[in-house]
């Protein structure tokens, strides 16, 4: 008997959320629930999309969605988020309780945020 394909838990907070312009990239994946990070992250307004950074000193709890994504989906999201071009990096993120026991990843903005406005805790901007 074959073991099931490994899946990755992904927290999305912007244009990948349901109803937004890039949500179709998750259409064949499993939506689990809405979720919030622990305080410690800042979301910046990059124009048409948000950029999340780790900010333990000044960060807040960010609202988003938790998804279970298969290997093909992860490869697609890595491409969409520009991981190989260093636009975003996929790393571990901590969610509030009830937290899942498995590791959860998110896409963090890898660019310079010094001139970007802070957006808040929930991306609702239409793109």
Task: Give a description of the structure.
A hairpin with a 4-residue loop joins strand 3 (about 40-45) and strand 4. By secondary structure, this protein is mostly beta strands. The chain has one helix and eight strands. The protein has one domain: Gamma-glutamyl cyclotransferase-like (Hypothetical upf0131 protein ytfp), CATH 3.10.490.10. The radius of gyration is 14 Å and the shape is globular. The model has no long low-confidence stretch (mean pLDDT about 95). The strands form two sheets. The protein has a five-stranded mixed sheet. Strands 4-3-8 form a three-stranded antiparallel sheet, with no helix packed on it. Pfam families: GGACT. Keywords: Transferase. GO terms for molecular function: gamma-glutamylaminecyclotransferase activity; transferase activity. InterPro entries: AIG2-like_dom, GGACT, GGCT-like, GGCT-like_sf. Belongs to the gamma-glutamylcyclotransferase family.
What is the structural class?
A: mainly beta
Oligomeric state of the chains in view: single chain
Instruction: Give the name of the CATH architecture.
Output: Roll
- What is the CATH third-level topology name? Hypothetical upf0131 protein ytfp
How helical, in percent, are the residues? under 10%
Our count of helices gives 1
Distance between the termini: 45 Å
pLDDT averaged residue by residue? 93
User: What is the H/E string?
Assistant: EEEEEHEEE
Which percent range describes the beta-strand content? 25-35%
Active site: 81 (proton acceptor)
InterPro entries: AIG2-like_dom, GGACT, GGCT-like, GGCT-like_sf
Protein name: Gamma-glutamylcyclotransferase family protein
Organism: Gimesia alba
